[in-house]
Amino acid sequence: MSRRRQERVTELIQQEISKRIPLLKDPGLGFITILAVRMSPDFNQAKVFYSVLGEADERRRTQEALERAKPFLRNELRSLENLKFPPELTFVLDNSAEEAQKVFEVLSELEKERQSQSPKSAP
User: Fold this and answer.
1) CA 84 to CA 42: how far, in whole Å?
2) Contact call for residues 24 and 69 (beta carbons, < 8 A)
3) Which residues, listed in sequence order, are joined to residue 34 by a DSSP beta bridge?
4) What confidence tens digit (pLDDT) does each residue in 39-64 have?
5) Does the model's pTM come out above 0.85?
């Protein structure tokens, strides 16, 4: 299987899932962003990495809504001409953006403390 084909199929699946999620009528879905898709070499498995804006409860409800939506989304992927069979979907919450924000906040706070403790030079 060519690497280029795998990249094309992976990108296509990410685009299709990103287009289909806003069409879901599940009230449990939060503000979700599909970040990436990683396909197995045989195209049977797709890990879908996503982020959700909100608190832990919203992330939990969104995960549950995505689990309920798996059969629908997988069925929608059947229409892709590049695949004989749609892959099994696994949704993985990616908290890296939130973690980066926390690190940034801590660093900003440390910088403020450092500046307030340094002696001011008189003009």
Assistant:
1) 11
2) yes
3) 50
4) 998 889 999 999 998 888 999 999 99
5) no
Smallest Cα–Cα separation from 67: which of 33, 108, 28? 28
Q: What does the H/E/C string look like for the chain? A: CCHHHHHHHHHHHHHHHHHHHHHCCCCCCCEEEEEEEEECCCCCEEEEEEEEECCHHHHHHHHHHHHHHHHHHHHHHCCCCCCCCCCEEEEEECCHHHHHHHHHHHHHHHHHHHHHHCCCCCC
Q: Work out the angle between the directed axes of helices 3-20 and 56-77 (0-180°, nearest 10).
A: 120
**Measured between alpha carbons, how far is residue 91 from residues 32, 104, 110 in Å?**
12, 27, 36
Q: What are phi and psi of 24, to 5 degrees?
A: -70, 140
